[in-house]
Write a structure and sequence with these properties.
Number of domains: 1
Subcellular location: Endoplasmic reticulum membrane
Family: Belongs to the type 2 lipid phosphate phosphatase family.
Number of strands: 2
Structural class: mainly alpha
Organism: Ogataea parapolymorpha (strain ATCC 26012 / BCRC 20466 / JCM 22074 / NRRL Y-7560 / DL-1) (Yeast)
Distance between the termini: 48 Å
GO molecular function: sphingosine-1-phosphate phosphatase activity
Largest sheet: 2 strands, antiparallel
Helix content: 55-70%
Membrane topology: Multi-pass membrane protein
Number of helices: 16
């Protein structure tokens, strides 16, 4: 089995320093809130251990450890562009997942709560990177709740487009995904009940926020004024700039940077399309490629997928060194007075200056991914993979 059993993590888990350590570095309200939640987290341990032992089978080990990849940052970055290339709207999903990753990361770094203790639990994961983060809230649960809530909303508000059997099957698939992500976090010893409940609340809240603001925000981004993308980028950067500082070394801030970059690129690309001579097929969702399997065929559909993924992979590979070369002289000059801070970076990204070059480059890389994904229809037209 190609997974890792982290049987003893107490020596290096984030969130397990002494109470005095956290008290010295937190404000009074923050420490009091953490202390109350910590007691709840600690009380769960015997129950979580009992659940893990009573539910254990080899098959469940494989299922839950591998299915956890469906809630990972890498999975979403690779798969989120696909609906747009095949005629489906997807911007809502990008917004709720991006905001979910950011807010779960911010709350994690604010509360500094540990994951369930191992032992007595056995932590089962394919990602040591993820296991180094704080525990509460569960980003997998937030993502699962956001996907389940948003897609369920779209299914239920468009029932005329589905047969009853299809609608029921789609809802069952969504529920299976949601249940697998949430219970899998507990089964694998990665999260406790408090973690997943808070994660579900955050994920559901991002869906509500998107649905409430969708009309006004999208209309704002179709304006011809350059202030629209400027304000959007400024808003996302401000969220990163004021992201809470963790007490321990926690890597979740890097995911927040990546997804804020995606949202920046999404809004920049949306604004560019809205104000360009090139018009996408579905004007409610600029960048959605017109698609019909009957007209395009299997071969061209496969080529469309292969070309899109290849271009994104090439960009992700080349963009970091390219942007570093381009931005380094400007950055060095602009922040010359901060050279001492920038030349002695912390091992933890969240504890480094929020204007450091690697952060700005990472934003550029992931912004580019979103912009390219939105503009693929123009590329498809150029190479003969688009519909007229």
């Amino acid at each position: 089995m190609l997974t890792d059993d982290l049987t003893s993590t107490s020596k290096y888990d984030a969130g397990l320093q002494t109470e005095a350590h956290y008290s010295a570095q937190m404000n009074a309200f923050q420490f009091k809130l953490r202390s109350k939640l910590l007691r709840l987290v600690q009380r769960e341990t015997p129950l979580l251990s009992k659940i893990q032992k009573s539910c254990y089978t080899d098959w469940r080990d494989i299922y839950f450890t591998y299915s956890a990849n469906l809630g990972s940052h890498t999975f979403y970055v690779l798969c989120l562009p696909l609906p747009a290339w095949f005629g489906y709207s997807y911007r809502d999903l990008v917004y709720v997942l991006g905001l979910g990753i950011f807010f779960t990361g911010a709350v994690k770094d604010y509360l500094c709560l540990p994951r369930p203790r191992c032992p007595p639990l056995v932590r089962k994961t394919m990602s040591h990177y993820t296991s180094q983060e704080y525990g509460c809230p569960s980003s997998h649960s937030a993502n699962a709740a956001a996907v389940f809530s948003l897609l369920s909303y779209h299914i239920l508000t468009n029932l005329d487009s589905f047969t009853a059997t299809t609608a029921i099957l789609l809802m069952l698939v969504l529920f299976l995904y949601f249940a697998s992500m949430v219970f899998g976090r507990i089964y694998c010893g990665m999260h406790g009940i408090v973690d997943v409940v808070v994660g579900i609340l955050i994920g559901t809240s991002t869906v509500i926020l998107r649905l409430i603001t969708k009309s006004n925000w999208d209309s704002f981004l179709t304006s011809s004024s350059v202030l629209a993308p400027t304000i959007a980028v400024g808003l996302y950067y401000a969220l990163l700039y004021f992201h809470p500082l963790p007490v321990d070394h926690c890597p979740c801030f890097e995911d927040s940077v990546a997804f804020m970059g995606v949202l920046m690129g999404l809004d920049i690309g949306f604004w560019l399309l809205a104000n360009s001579s090139f018009k996408a097929a579905d004007m409610e969702y600029h960048g959605t490629c017109k698609y019909s399997l009957e007209q395009l065929g299997y071969m061209k559909s496969a080529l469309r997928l292969a070309l899109g993924i290849s271009i994104l992979a090439a960009w992700k590979t080349l963009a970091k060194p390219l942007l570093t070369i381009i931005l380094k002289p400007v950055h060095s000059r602009a922040f010359a007075s901060q050279a001492t801070k920038l030349d002695n970076p912390s091992d933890c990204a969240a504890l480094r200056p929020r204007y450091e070059l690697p952060l700005l480059v990472r934003l550029g890389v992931y912004s580019g991914i979103a912009i390219i994904a939105l503009w693929m229809d123009a590329i498809y037209k150029y190479v003969g993979l688009a519909l007229d």
